[in-house]
Amino acid sequence: MKEFEQVIDRKNTRSVKWGNMEAIYGVEDASEVLPMWIADMDFKAPQPIIEAMQERLDHGVFGYSYICTKCKDAVRSWLSSRHGWETENEWMLFHHGVVPAIATVVETFTNVGDNILITPPVYHPFSIVPGNQKRNIVECRLKEENGHYSIDFEAFENALQQDVKLFIFCHPHNPGGVVWKEDDLRKILRLCKRYDVLILSDEIHADLVLPGCKHIPLAKLAEEEGGQVITCVAPTKTFNLAGVQAAIMITKEEDLKHALQQSALAHGQMELNAFASSALISAYTECEQWLENLLETISANMDYVIKTLTEEVPGIQIQKPNATYLLWIDYRGTGLSEEELMDRLLNKGKLALEPGSKYGEAGRGFLRMNVATPRSIVEDGVKRFIKAME
Ligand SMILES: Cc1ncc(COP(=O)(O)O)c(C=O)c1O
């Protein structure tokens, strides 16, 4: 599809992905390094979003902005039509990101020293944010078989018994790309209810479920199973708006919502910036076809990388994920350590991927590769990978 073939130069745009590699990877000169790491896309946002933001920009007055009913209606109807989840505007609170929302939930519902459960390998802010808030992280590693991840429910229940106050759940799962099945979701809800553990369900990747797979919002099942759930969603991952910043926290529980509102008041926050509201409304009301096209492009990029790398590089295995635009590459068969592999990739191949241990020790032996980029760049990345491994 044409819109996903265009190569856009992102250098000198203050892009973390393209401009911050010296600091992140410790290389002296990153000008020749191809970044396929942090989770944003190299594609332009959908045209209706650009126009909505342009209209807002052209107005020229950028005073305080509030979150209007149209904004909430847009979120509500998207969740209903895309995910079959009926929500109400009153259940929503807005934030400038899912990571800041995680910080808010941790701060609001746990105390210093409290135990928080995560399932590594998992998105690293799940441990970094609570860790910086002096909370204690309890890990229940996912079970991994040939690159397929599942929850070990016996270990999960044992972990919940360690006086855990909050479970931060990644659904779909980053970095493994797992779209959790209904049976898993029900078990999670029942167990967390049994041990009185609040769940923060981070569903930022929910819209990036690849063709043929279906995301079930955890909170939708909580209506039958019970359990306390705060869900975080956002248009930013889906429509490549990370730098615009917007996220929504959703909970049906009046007391949880009230506590979050109090926390917002304590920090003087929870509005969106003037551009984010315009972008959000357009994203959720005008851009579904763009998303369908994107998902096909990502799926095809994944097929290409999986086929080429597994054929060309001995010791590499990759399972196609069910969601996200991230490949989780298993290099254990190469016999290389993470340090050796990263050195080869960065210095020989000139390619920046994410080392798996960033997602916890459970991720060691894997690399995360972002394929949300035009095919010509994907091909370049694959060539660099092959060169690094020669
Ligand atoms: C699981 C997960 N949550 C949250 C985020 C980031 O959210 P935000 O940019 O809204 O803070 C990411 C980004 O990759 C993610 O993978």
Describe it for me?
- By secondary structure, the protein is of the alpha/beta class.
- Helices cover 42% and strands 15% of the residues.
- The protein is built from 14 helices and 15 strands.
- It has helices at 16-19, 21-25, 47-59, 69-83, 98-109, 125-132, 153-160, 182-194, 218-225, 254-267, 274-286, 288-312, 338-349, 375-389; strands spanning 34-35, 92-95, 115-118, 136-139, 143-145, 148-150, 164-170, 198-202, 229-233, 247-250, 317-318, 326-330, 351-352, 354-355, 366-370.
- The strands form four sheets. The chain has a seven-stranded mixed sheet, sandwiched between helices. Strands 11-12-15-14 form a four-stranded antiparallel sheet, covered by helices on one side. The chain has a two-stranded parallel sheet with strand order 1-13.
- A hairpin with a 2-residue loop joins strand 5 and strand 6 (148-150).
- The protein is globular.
- The two termini are 33 Å apart.
- The mean pLDDT is 96.
- The site of pyridoxal-5'-phosphate has 13 residues, from helix 5.
- Pyridoxal-5'-phosphate (PLP) binds next to helix 5.
Specify the number of helices: 14
* Largest sheet report: 7 strands, mixed
Give the rounded overall mean pLDDT: 96
* Strand order across the largest sheet: 2-10-9-8-7-3-4
Tell me the overall shape. Answer: globular
The molecules bound to the chains, other than polymers, are: pyridoxal-5'-phosphate
Q: Which percent bin holds the helix content? A: 40-55%
The total of beta strands comes to 15
| Succession of helices and strands | HHEHHEHEHEEEHEHEHEEHHHEEHEEEH
- The percentage of residues in β strands lies in 5-15%
Q: Any idea what the radius of gyration is?
A: 21 Å
Helix/strand/pairing category: alpha/beta
> Which stretches of 5+ consecutive residues score pLDDT under 50?
none
